[in-house]
Amino acid sequence: MKTVLIVDDQPEVRELVKVALSIEDFTMLEATNGDEAVRLARMNRPDLIIMDLMMPGNIDGLQATKLIKGDARLTNCKVIILTARNQKGDEEEFVKSGADDYFFKPFSPLELIDKVDEILEK
Amino acid sequence: MNAHLNILFIEDSESDALLFEREMKKNGFVVDSTRVQTREELDDALRQDDWNLIVIDYVVPGLNGLDALKICTEKKPFVPIISMSGIVDENVIVETLQSGAYDYVLKSNFRRVSHAVRRAIENAEIRKKNAWNEAENVRLHRELALKYEIADICLSTPEKDMYSAVLNVVLHELDSPLGVFGYVNDRNTLVCPSMTFDVWERCQIPNKTNEFPQRIWGGIWGKALIEKRVTMTNEPCKVPQGHLPITRSLNVPVLYKGERIGLFMVANKTTDYTENDTLLLKMIANHISPILQSRLEMARELYRRKRAENRFALAIEGANDGVWDWDMRTEEMYFSPRWKEMIGYRDEELENRLEVWEERIHPQDLEHVRGMIRSCLYGERDSFSLEYRIRHKNGDYRWILICGACKRNETGKPVLLAGSHTDITEKKLAAEERDRLYKEAEQKASETSSLLDGAKAVLEEDEFIVIARRLFDAGCRNTGATSGYVALLSDDGQENEVLFLESGGLPCSVNPDLPMPVRGLRGQVYASGKVAFDNNFQNSKWMEFLPEGHVQLKNVLFAPLNVEGRTVGIMGLANKPTDFTDQDLHIAEGFGELAAIALKNTRIREALRQSEEKHRLLAENTADVIWMMGLDATFTYVNPAIEKFFGYSPEEFIGTNISNHSDDKNLQIMLEVIQECIAQEPNFEAVTFEVEMIRKDGETIPVEIMGKILTDEDGQPVALQGVTRDITERKKAERALIDYKEHLEKEVKERTADLRNALNQAEESHERIDTILKSVADGLIVTDRHNHVLLMNRAAEDILGIRFSEAVSRSIEYAIEDKTLREKIMYTLGKQQTGYEFDFTHEDPVNRTKKTMRGRTSVVPDRQGGISGIVTIIQDVTKEREIDRMKTEFISTAAHELRTPLTSIRGFSEILLVRDDIPEESRKKYLGYINKQSVGLANIINDLLDISRIESGIGFALHKELCDGRQAIEAILPQFQEIGKKHVFVVQMCEEPITLYVDHDKMGQVLTNLLSNSVKYSPKGGTITIKTGIEDAKKDNDRPSFFISVQDEGMGMTQEQVEHIYDKFYRADASNTAIEGTGLGMSIVKHIVEAHDGRIDISSQKGKGTTVTVFLPLNGK
Q1: Confidence class of residue A51 from pLDDT cuts 50, 70 and 90?
Q2: ipTM passes above 0.95
Q3: Contact, B184 vs B190, CB < 8 A?
C-alpha cells in the first residue's frame, strides 16, 4: 500500500483530500505546516506528498518542497502542489521547486485522483 | 608628422567644415576633405582606406553624432577622430570623448583646431603601434601554448589515440571541419590512423582504405608528399566519383632530416586559407616531427623483433638445434654435427669430450652450467634449462639455450644425460637493442618534458629575470651542470651584462662589477648564434681570457638568446660532473629559444609601458591657463599659456594680485567667489563662473574660471587652484545668437502687423496663447532641432524644477535632469519619428517623493517636411498608476480569499454527487461544511463589496436616524451569548439614555465585528466586557462624545500587529488557522466609524487581551 502525506493547514481541505483518495487505498499521513511536512517525510518516506503552499510556521510549502526534493534519501517521493496561489510567475516557481505537478484550488476531487494515479504510475 | 591630410567631415554645415579646413591650412597643413551627412554616405566613405582624420559634428540631423562616432571607431580604429560641436556643454564633451573621440573642438573656437589635430594624429600613431605590439604578444603566447598542448598530447596519449588527438587540435586551430593526419611507413605508404569522423563513411567510393601507397599519391595532397612542400588551394579540388567535395585544402608534409615521415591535410574551412594558416600548420609539423620520428622508430623496431622471433620459432620447428648426450655408464660424450656447427666447427674438427665443451664455456657462466649438471646427476632435479655463453671458433661468444634431462635406472642411479643446444644470440641482441631504444625514448621524453617546464615558466611569469632564473634552474637540472649564469648584451654590444650568476658553491673572487667583454668562447656564441661547448676548458685556448680568481671551470656550455635573428644574450652552463653531450646541447638550445621568447615578450611590454608614459606627457600640454594663488588672491603659479592669453610672461604674472587684472565690478565678483570657496566645506567641488579680466595691453576679455580650494592636512584652506579659459569667441557667438533672435522677433512682429493690421491685436492674441499655454495643467516643453529649449510652461517648470528663464536656449542636457525624458526627445529627433509615449519616474525636487510621469513627444514639421522641433507634453499619472496597481492587488487577494471556501464547496459537493458509498453521517457532515462555507462566502462577498465601495471612493450611503445606543447593544448581544458559550459577557452601561444620530444597520455591523473578533481571539473563553459612557471634551471647542468599548481577555496583539490592524486582508495571527476570517472586518469598521465622524482607539497587550473603543459624537447631526 502506498503512503500519502497530506499537508494543509485547513482541516477541511485535508479531510476532502482524504475522502477523495479513499482511505482504503492509501496509508494517510497528515501535516499542518512545512516543518512538520519535512519531518514526517523524512521519517516515513511517503510515496506522494500533497502540499499546500501558504501555511503558518517557519517555512512555507514551497520551501518544504525544495527541502524534500533536495533530500537524496527522498528521491522516490513525488510532490503535488495544491494551492490557492495562482499569479503570474507562480507556475514557473512551482516547477523550479522540484514539484512533480501542481493543482489549483478549488479543485475537482476526481481530477485529483486521476493526477495522483498518473504520478504514482510514472 | 604627415602634413598632408585627407579629412572626412561628418557635418551638415559646409561652412563649419570650411572654417575647420581654413584653420588647418593656416597652420601649414595641406588638406583634402570630403563631407558626408547621412549614414549611407558615411558607410561609402569608410570603405576608402586613406583617411588621416575624421571630424564629427555632434549634431547632424539624420545621423546621431554618437552613433557616427561608434561606427567610425569600429571601422577605423586607428584613424584619429575629433568631435566638433556647437554646444558648450561639459556632458556632451565628456560623452563624445568617452565614446572614442580623441579631442573636441568648439565651433565657437576654431583656434584650438591645429593643436588638437596634431595631438590626435600623434596619439593614433601610438595606439596603432601599441595594438601591433599587443597582437604580436598574443600571437607568440598562442603559438607557445599550442606547442605545449601538442607536446603534452604526444607524451601522454597512447599511440592509437595520438593521431586523432593531435588532429583535433589542428582542426580547431585552423577552423577546418575535415582533416587527415598520417605517417609514412617503410614501404612509402601513407597510413592514416586518424581521419575526421565520418569522412570515409560519407564517401560513396569503392575500396575504402586508410592506407595510401606511393603509386596512388595524387592530387594536391600527393604533391605535398612527393615534392616535400606545402600545397594550398582555395579552389574546389578534383575528387573521385562519390568522394566528399573538397572546397579548399591545405597540406603540409612532416619532414624529419629531409625525409617525409607524415602528412597533415586540412580542408573545407569556410573562409580562404591564408599565409598565416600555412605558417601555423608548418610550425606544428616542425614541432611534431622529432616526436613522430621517435614513435615511428619504436614501431619499426617492434615490427622487426616480431619477425625475428618468428624466425626463431621456425628454426626450432625444423629441428635445427644441436644435440648432446653424456652416457654415465661409459663416460662417453656426444655432440651432434649441428651442435658443433653452431660454434663454427665441422664435425671432425672437435672431439667428443667433456673438456672440449667446458673449455669453451664463458668463464662467468662455467660454474653455473656445472652446478646445473651436478644437481641433475645427484638427483636434485630431472631436467634443467639455462642460458649461457660459449666461445665460437672466431673467438666471439654465442648465447646458447641449453636444455637437459636425466635418465635413471631402477635404483635411481643416473645412466644418461641428454639435451639440446639452441643459439639465442640474435634474440639476446634484440633484447639489448630494445632496452637501448627504450632508454633512448625515455631520454627524449625527459628532454621534452624539461622543455615543457621551461615553456610553462614563460607562460606563467611576466618578469624576464624570474623566467630566466626558472629556465636556468631547469637547464641545470636537465644537463647536470652545477654553475653558470644568464646575461644580456649591453646596449653598445661590447659587454656581457650578467642578470644573475650561480657559482655552484665554488669560490670565486672576481669583482662582479668588472666588465665582461664579449670574447672567447662566448664571443664565438654571440657571433654565430649557435650553441657551443668545451669539455676540456681547463686546457683550451679560451683559458687566457679567464680572469684570475674565477671559479674553476671543468667544462662550459653556452646557449644563445636569439631575438629576430640577433643574439642578444646567453645562458652559460658549467661544471657538469661528466662531459656535456649532444643531448645537453639540444636541451640548452631549447632553453635558449624559450628565454628569447620571454625576453621578446618582456621588451614588448616595456615598449607598451613607455608609450603610455609618452601619452601621459602629451595630455599634460594644455591650452588653458592653469594657476595657483594664495588666499590673498596673489598668484603663486601660472603655466606658460598665460602669455598667449594675457600678454604677460609667467615670471611677470606671478606675484601680481587679481586686483591688477580686473575692474572693480569684476574684482568684487571674484573676491566673493573666493570667500565663498573658503567658507565652503573642504573638498568641495570646483566652482565655475564667468567674469571679465584685463590683458596686459589693456583690452578686456571675457573668461571662464574654474577654481578649487586647496586645504592642508587639517582641512584648513591654504591656497586656490584653477583653470582660466578665454571665452571671447563663445561670448561673441552668444551675442550673435541673441542678435539673430532679436532680428527674427522683429521680423515676426512686422509680419504679424502686416497681416493683422494692428500690432496691439497681435500682441493680445500672442498673450492669449501664452496664457493658455501657461495655464495648461500638463507640462509642455518645446525644443528645437538642436535640442535646445524654446519654450516651457509653468507646469513643466514645476515638474523639471527649473525656471524657463534659466533653461531658454540651453541644451536639454542642461535643462532636463531625467535621462529617459532627455533620451526620448533626442531619439524622436534622431529617428525622425512622429513621436513617443512613455512613462518615467520623477523625483519631486522639493519633498523628494517619487512620481510617475507620462511623457509624449511629437514632431513639429517645418514647411519642407523636415523637423523644426519637438513638442513634449508631460502629465503626472502617479494617481492613475497607483489606482491600477491597487486594482490588480485587490483582485488577486480577493480571488485568493474566495478560493478557500470554494475548495470545500466544490470538493465535497463533487464527492457527494459521484460517490454513493458515503455513510449518512458523513453526508450530513459534508453538507454542513458546504453550507458553512457558502455562508462564509456570502460574508466575504459582502465585505468585499463594502471594501470596493470604500476604495472606489463611493463610500457608504448612510441612512442616519436617531436611536438609543443601549438598545442597539441589547439587540445584538444575545446571538453572541449563543456562540460564545465559553465566554462570560458583562455589560456596563451608563444610566441615562443616549441618543445617537447614526445609521442603525451600519453601527450594528461595527458592533458585530468587534464582538466576533473578541470571541474569535479569545478561544479559551474568559470575560468579554462591554462598556458605554460619555467622555468629556478634552479641549474647549471639542464636544463630549459617546463611547462604547469591547474588552476581552484573549491572546492580544503586539504593537506591530496593532499597527496593521486596518490593513485590508490583515489577520492578527495568520498562523493560527483555527481563527477564520478575511481580514477585512476592522478595515470596514474603521470606514464606518469615520463616516460617522467618530474614531477608534485600540489598546492591546500580547497574552493579556484587547480593548477596542469606538468614540462617536453625541447628537452628531
Answers
A1: very high
A2: no
A3: yes
B929–A12: do the CB atoms touch at under 8 Å?
Answer: yes
C-alpha Rg value of chain B to the nearest Å: 52
Distance from the Cα of B952 to chain A's closest Cα (Å) equals: 23
Residue B415's Cα: distance from chain center in Å? 91
d(CA B1098, CA B1068): 13
Amino acid B618: pLDDT = 40
* Contact at CB, A20 and B907, closer than 8 angstroms: yes
Q: Is residue A36 less than 8 Å (CB to CB) from chain B?
A: no
- In the block, cell 484573549 appears at B1050
State residue B47's pLDDT score: 84
Query: Counting Cβ atoms within 10 Å, is residue B356 exposed (0-12), middle (13-18) or buried (19+)?
Result: middle
- Omega of the bond leading into B993 within 30 degrees of 0 (cis): no
Residues of B in contact with A87 (CB under 8 A): 892
8 Å CB contact between B653 and B695? no
d(CA A59, nearest CA chain B) in Å: 11
Gap from A82 CA to chain B (nearest CA, Å)? 11
> How many CB pairs lie under 8 A apart between chains A and B?
56
Neighboring chain B residues of A32 at a CB cutoff of 8 Å? 1073
The whole-angstrom separation of Cα B191 and Cα B210 is 6
**DSSP type of residue B723:** E
What is the per-residue pLDDT for A17?
A: 92
Q: Are B623 and B590 in contact (CB under 8 A)?
A: no
Full strand arrangement of the beta sheet holding B789-792:
B789-792, B779-784, B867-876, B850-861, B835-843
Position with higher pLDDT, B967 vs A92: A92
Instruction: Check: CB of residue B194 under 8 Å from CB of residue B160.
Output: no
Question: Measured between CB atoms, does A25 come within 8 Å of chain B?
Answer: no
B1071 interfaces chain A, CB cutoff of 8 Å: yes
Helices (H), chain A: 11-21, 34-44, 61-69, 90-97, 109-121
Q: What is the mean pLDDT of residues A38-48?
A: 93
Question: What are the cell numbers at B743?
Answer: 532680428
Whether residue B899 and residue A13 make contact (CB cut-off 8 A), yes or no, is: no
For B495, which DSSP code?
A: B
Q: Would you say the C-alpha torsion A13, A15, A16, A18 has a positive or negative sign?
A: positive
Q: Whose grid coordinates read 570603405?
A: B47
Residue with cell 449563543: B978
DSSP letter at B481 equals -
Q: Using N-to-C axis directions, what is the helix angle for B920-951 and B1081-1091, rounded to 10°?
A: 40
- SS3 state at B7: strand
Q: Which helix (H) or strand (E) holds B1025?
A: strand B1022-1031
Interface test with A, best of B888, B889, B891, B896 (most A CBs within 10 A): B896
Question: Which of A56, A85, A86 is opposite residue B1071, by nearest beta carbon?
Answer: A56
Which conformational region is residue B564 in: left (phi greater than 0), alpha (psi within -120 to 50 degrees), or beta? Answer: left
Please report the pLDDT score of residue B616 as a whole number. Answer: 46
- The pLDDT assigned to B615 comes to 46
Contact B618, B120 (CB under 8 A): no
Gap from B1073 CA to chain A (nearest CA, Å): 7
CA distance B760 to B749: 11
Q: CB atoms < 10 A from the CB of B1040, how many?
A: 13
Cβ–Cβ gap A84/B903 under 8 Å: yes
Taking the CA of residue A106 and the nearest CA in chain B, the distance in Å comes to 4
pLDDT of residue A40 exceeding 90, the answer is: yes
Taking alpha carbons only, the member of A95, A46, A103 closest to residue A71 is: A46
Instruction: Please give the distance of CA B46 from its chain centroid, rounded to a whole number.
Output: 30
Residues of chain B with pLDDT under 50: 1-2, 197, 309-319, 615-621, 758-759, 762, 1070-1074, 1117
Residues B718 and B682 sit within 8 Å (Cβ to Cβ):
no
